Amino acid sequence: WEGLFVSQHAWDADNGSDPQPMLSAEEKQAIWDMLLVAYERKCPVFIQSWKDRHFHYKHCTIRELDWEQRLITYEEPLGGQQLAIGTITSIYMLD
């Protein structure tokens, strides 16, 4: 039975590990392509991102792309926010 359970140290927040999802080059390219299309169309998107060991979800519209700083500025009901492109794990256009 012990083999079916994950030991407590694997879940210890102080162990410094960050189980951030690893994306393939193809997946990263697909995210970049979708960002560009969504920005050009100004259509609503659903974004999943990774921060502080958790997934975060946003339903928003991309207002600005800053390729040099690798940031997007998006608009959601609570106002404009910025998000690092490297934290995005998936994006879906809703139109």
Description:
- This protein has one helix spanning 25-41, and strands at 44-51, 54-66, 71-76, 79-84, 88-93.
- It has 95 residues and is α+β, with helices and mostly antiparallel strands.
- It has a five-stranded antiparallel sheet with strand order 4-3-2-1-5, covered by helices on one side.
- Residues 1-14 have low confidence and may be disordered.
Number of strands: 5
Alpha carbon gyration radius? 16 Å
Main sheet properties: 5 strands, antiparallel
Distance, first to last CA: 48 Å
* Beta-strand content estimate: 35-45%
- What is the strand arrangement across the widest sheet? 4-3-2-1-5
Which percent bin holds the helix content? 10-25%
Mean pLDDT: 83
Structural class: alpha+beta
Helical stretch count?
A: 1
Low-confidence stretches: 1-14
Order of helices and strands: HEEEEE
Provide tags for this entry.
41% strand; single chain; alpha+beta; disordered N terminus; 5 strands
Short overview:
With 95 residues, this protein is of the alpha+beta class. 18% of the residues lie in helices and 41% in strands.
Please render the helix and strand layout as text.
Blueprint: H1 25-41, E1 44-51, E2 54-66, E3 71-76, E4 79-84, E5 88-93
